[in-house]
Sequence to fold (365 residues):
Amino acid sequence: MSSGVGRHVVEDADGGLRLDQWIVRRWSGVSRARARAFIAEGHVRVEGRLEPPGRRLRAGETIEIDEIPRPARVPATPDPELPLRVLWCDEHVVVVDKPAGVPSHPLRASERGTLAGALVARFPEMATIGRDPREPGLVHRLDTGTSGLLLAARSEHAFDHLTAALRGGRIEKQYVAQVVGAPAVPDVVRWPLVADRTDRRRVVACPTQAEALRRGARDAETHLLASYPAEGGVYLLVRAARAFRHQIRAHLAAMGHPLVGDELYGGPAIEPAGTHRLHACRIAFEHPVDGRLVSVVSRPVWLPDAAARALGLDDSPGIAHGGPPRSTRRARPRSARAGGQPGSRPRERDETDAIRTERADRPGR
Fold:
């Protein structure tokens, strides 16, 4: 992380963060454990003094940080045998439909069966795109058990543009889920998330600000947009602009409505094992070169026709170019606070229109 060398001033928005949390938020790819280790080794100083990882920062303080070397990264091994369903593609951007059970990227050398490997085999130029050779060109990731749309870049310019748009909340991402029970809609959940101390595979929601600050939790926001009845629960349309690791899964579980199939978070088991009913069904973004809106829609195989029509997914897969997403009123958020009920006043569905086009007109088919 050579960009970490030098002096940095704590911004107003970062006041109150722990020192290790500030490092993790400022530089992608650095874990909390790695940040704590480098602080303990004396690589980080606050106002010229060595401080512990839990030191709370104040706005305006100066932080000096030595270079934090990135850990060795395992490049994605090209995997031409793995099927790759491309829904939209040009020389700058590709949108693919990831099956449930397929990892987004490898964790071990020469690992096969990953979406990243299939992408590099199909688009070799992507091998050098992005910050991590394990994730060539990937603008975001999906959990292994989650299916649906994944956005990737085929050029450095496209990668920089799209990752900046993602950080700024300018990429519209929606998901369809099958959950236990029937959560109120519309609703906004703003419970910060933190790693589970008892099970490192999980993250947990912090329903109060005091707990979130004490544990150094990361802010997360999930919009529940609309629902349709399902056996034992509902099909739920969800929006999460950034969707941190396990965000939707953890938020729904904390509300008492785990995903069907998500045994890690208390949901009932389904086949095949290791998958759950969460599908990235819609993504809309500004094209990094010509600025037009690209909107891609995908419908999961497990979603019935009636539910697909009710949730606006009956014409998928679909590709569209058009104007910006509709502006909408917001539901009162279910935020990190002591108690409180979700907002109940109606609002328009916060989603991007899917504009029907003929299959023959879709790029990359």
